[in-house]
Amino acid sequence: MQFGIFSVSDVTTDPTTGRTPTEGERIKAMVRIALKAEEVGLDVFASGEHHNPPFVASSPTTMLGYVAAQTEKIVLSTSTTLITTNDPVKIAEDFAMLQHLADGRVDLMMGRGNTGPVYPWFGQDIRQGIPLALENYNLLHRLWREDVVDWEGKFRTPLQGFTSTPRPLDGVPPFVWHGSIRSPEIAEQAAYYGDGFFHNNIFWPATHTKKLISLYRRRFEHYGHGRADQAVVGLGGQVFMRKNSQDAVKEFRPYFDNAPVYGGGPSLEEFTRETPLTVGSPQEVIDRTLGFRESFGDYQRQLFLMDHAGLPLKTVLEQLDLLGEEVVPVLRKEFAAKKPEHVPDAPTHASLLAAKERATTNTEVQE
């Protein structure tokens, strides 16, 4: 199982000081956070993609390439790649390039995005969000697996004899997670291709999240990729920790109350009761996260949101120390002890390459 963090890249005023970081400061902070994630032993750093204020992560592959040059082990991912408003040809080429630079430590999460104005900015219609996601990913899937592609669809110009460059590293495309918090069509798409399904799991009660994950598992088995409990699932989550629970609540409350995403809505107590947000001690985070397995089954990736709502960099780095030193080691042990042998680990470039080589050997033997 992989544990990591994801950033939404918001530039938010610190409500306790009134100071707003510059865009440059926020970008550099995200890089520092990614490096810290590897330092404390996490498996994944993921960046969102946004094209509107107050967010700055408009070019995830640029940032991840910069981080790749300064790291050795951590998997570099997106927590959203906008499959609806990006050209699938450019996605294919950008992430193959990143894959080579990072020696395979790359995967990505496809998402439709939830900011309506972004669609017309990139020449698309939000009312076509689902058809765009389905058609664009079908093309991307082929571009990574076929050396020469002839293609025609509804939303972009046709391709004739087209070869995407560079080709995926070792002939193995980056692993794809399809992210959604509300669309059964995306869960179906992930199941059809045998890809991963990621539910952000930060705004919704467990009953809602369970419905989409259960649908994905059933359809994964239907399409012959394995048993339902072998489907590849990832979850998001939000945490804020201090040694003492009361201190965590007191410190985090002003950030929660003024956050651009949920400020002015339910109280902190209501939100922590109804969603996976956990504000408390490391042990409370451990207990809450272990409970996800009871709700959703064995899963392969857990990402935490920790650098949002104006939290200063120093505080975020302290959170990562707690996560890496006190929380993740316990979670690794507990999840590993409970995982059945037939449930797969999270896919990596090495495991995908090994599977490809086994398939090639079996084919040669049969011939």
Automatic annotation (TrEMBL):
Listed NCBIfam families: LLM_CE1758_fam
Cellular component aspect of the GO annotation: cytosol
Organism whose genome encodes this protein: Nocardiopsis metallicus
Protein name: Putative FMN-dependent luciferase-like monooxygenase
CDD domains on file: Flavin_utilizing_monoxygenases
One Pfam family recorded for the sequence: Bac_luciferase
InterPro entries the UniProt entry points to: Bact_Lucif_Oxidored (IPR050766), LLM_FMN-dep_put (IPR023934), Luciferase-like_dom (IPR011251), Luciferase-like_sf (IPR036661)
Keyword Transport: no
Keywords recorded for this protein, A-Z: Monooxygenase, Oxidoreductase
Domain (Luciferase-like): residue spans on this chain: 1-297
Gene Ontology molecular function: monooxygenase activity; oxidoreductase activity, acting on paired donors, with incorporation or reduction of molecular oxygen
Annotated spans, Disordered: 341-367
